[in-house]
């Protein structure tokens, strides 16, 4: 059989959110002959094992919380059966499968050719794709985009670590664990811990330091750690795992560890989830063969215009590692397509990586945009910033007993004589939806005076941000 050879103007390696956004704009808007290659399911991490199924699970956890809180409002809600995890998982899987189909149809609508297989770059204008049937195809392209994303990592130095799973494996769990252990201090571990706990699973969280979400403002760190402890999540601080063992009869795990209280063994664990970080998906990409530069973590080095050091090869998304967020990859991908194919008016098109809002779907939600207080002090000096704080109980909790009330905390960080808002950090009910609008204001350069000039919407939690003293 003659080898398959294809030619195109634009080859996109990676069918996640960023790669698909770039491919669709190049082909659908600018008529560029585009091929997209993906080895797994379309949509990448976000759609399949990330934001989308995570948020659906968070919704279930939020409903569980509401059911428990309904009594305070006069409802007599009786749960006749425990949460039906298998039914929920089946429906969640079906939803993701529908999304995979929508992504495929969108590629067809924008006339992007989709090839299922693993791509390896073999030259600055060429790649080889290993197809499902084991055959190979050579694709010659004028320009190549590397948008392969990343994958979760597991420890290599803990005996028995392979007995646990990772954040991808979380979505494969068939029945609800009675007892779960999570290792990690980033948003993935924190979100999973909150969801498990709200759904009634005994939840243990192992962190290496005293606090988690350590890239967030100290106010957020302190408040969310205290709230998780209040909610009954067992946080093992200053911890490390020595070995993991599995009971041959029950299949349950024992975790041998050390933490701030000394050495211990956590027994009868149904699921262990490692959420200790992610690595770029570059193993089979062939970067060495064309000399694409990588940093110490293996992430592809790209400049502010998403150029790599190799002419006609570009990179976006998690594999670059600037901001590992789906909307960031989409925005960077679309701007890159504009710059490459949209004509002279887009010659300077690029993503501005400043003031990107992000949300952690913890319990409660956390939102953040701009600089933390330590970052603002380091950048501008303590005398040039002014910080406004508020801490209160949301009206939703007014009908509840003191021990059932969750926290709300907001912080506004302002700089200079005009008090330009350079950081906003919020924790409490509705933070995710709230932050998007405030993000627009901050992106436009809003000042404290601008915030103050807005008439408050009462009664809301958000009004506290425009009445800060």
TrEMBL record:
Location in or out of the cell: Cytoplasm; Mitochondrion
Co-factor note (free text): Binds 1 FAD per subunit.
Binding site for FAD: 55, 318
Positions annotated to bind NAD(+): 184-191, 277
Domain FAD/NAD(P)-binding: from-to ranges: 9-333
Subcellular location, principal: cytoplasm
Keywords in alphabetical order: Cytoplasm, Disulfide bond, FAD, Flavoprotein, Mitochondrion, NAD, NADP, Nucleotide-binding, Oxidoreductase, Redox-active center
Cofactor requirements of the protein: FAD
GO (cellular component) term, any one: cytosol
InterPro entries, per the entry: FAD/NAD-bd_sf (IPR036188), FAD/NAD-binding_dom (IPR023753), FAD/NAD-linked_Rdtase_dimer_sf (IPR016156), Glutathione_Rdtase_euk/bac (IPR006322), GSHR/TRXR-like (IPR046952), Pyr_nuc-diS_OxRdtase (IPR001100), Pyr_nucl-diS_OxRdtase_dimer (IPR004099), Pyr_OxRdtase_I_AS (IPR012999)
Active site: 458 (proton acceptor)
Origin superkingdom: Eukaryota
GO terms of biological process kind: cell redox homeostasis; cellular response to oxidative stress; glutathione metabolic process
EC number(s) from the headed UniProt entry: 1.8.1.7
Family statement: Belongs to the class-I pyridine nucleotide-disulfide oxidoreductase family.
Subunit structure comment from the entry: Homodimer.
PANTHER family per record: GLUTATHIONE REDUCTASE
Classification via NCBIfam families: gluta_reduc_1, PRK06116.1
Protein task: Catalyzes the reduction of glutathione disulfide (GSSG) to reduced glutathione (GSH). Constitutes the major mechanism to maintain a high GSH:GSSG ratio in the cytosol.
Protein name: Glutathione reductase
Species name: Pseudogymnoascus verrucosus
Lineage, highest ranks first: Eukaryota, Fungi, Dikarya, Ascomycota, Pezizomycotina
Encoding gene, per UniProt annotation: GLR1
